[in-house]
Design a protein that fits this description.
The chain has one domain. The chain is built from 3 helices and 4 strands. The longest helix is centred in the last third of the chain and has 10 residues. It starts with 11 loop residues before the first helix and ends with a helix. The N terminus is likely disordered.
């Protein structure tokens, strides 16, 4: 089992090397072939995996995160990892939406 550190929650590359996302056997859906779609064969595959090995890529108000476990709301995709998450909950920030970007979007709306 992988040990979770505070640094890992801030470092996507460390998350990838520690938990080791597997390749999607149904084809390359993104993220170098490790992302799974939210429907069809991919979702059926996800449903058969141990909970501790499932991660959800989620879109939020301030950015996107990879969160341990299966989540439905605002999901972008899923990952299955070789190594399970040993704590109840963990999230890794992927993208941060800048205030300036949001202001520009509001002005252009």
């Amino acid at each position: 089992m992988a040990e979770v550190t505070a640094e890992m929650e801030k470092d996507l590359e460390l998350w990838e090397t520690t938990f080791k996302p597997i390749q999607n056997p149904n084809g390359d859906m993104g993220w170098n072939g490790t992302m799974f779609e939210t429907y069809g064969e991919d979702l059926a595959f996800i449903a058969k995996q141990p909970d501790a090995n499932i991660w959800t890529w989620v879109d939020g108000d301030e950015g996107t995160w990879i969160m341990s476990g299966f989540h439905y709301i605002n999901r972008i995709g899923y990952f299955v990892t070789e190594n399970p998450c040993t704590q109840e909950y963990m999230e890794i920030q992927v993208d941060i939406y800048e205030e300036e970007e949001e202001e520009e979007e509001e002005e252009n709306a």
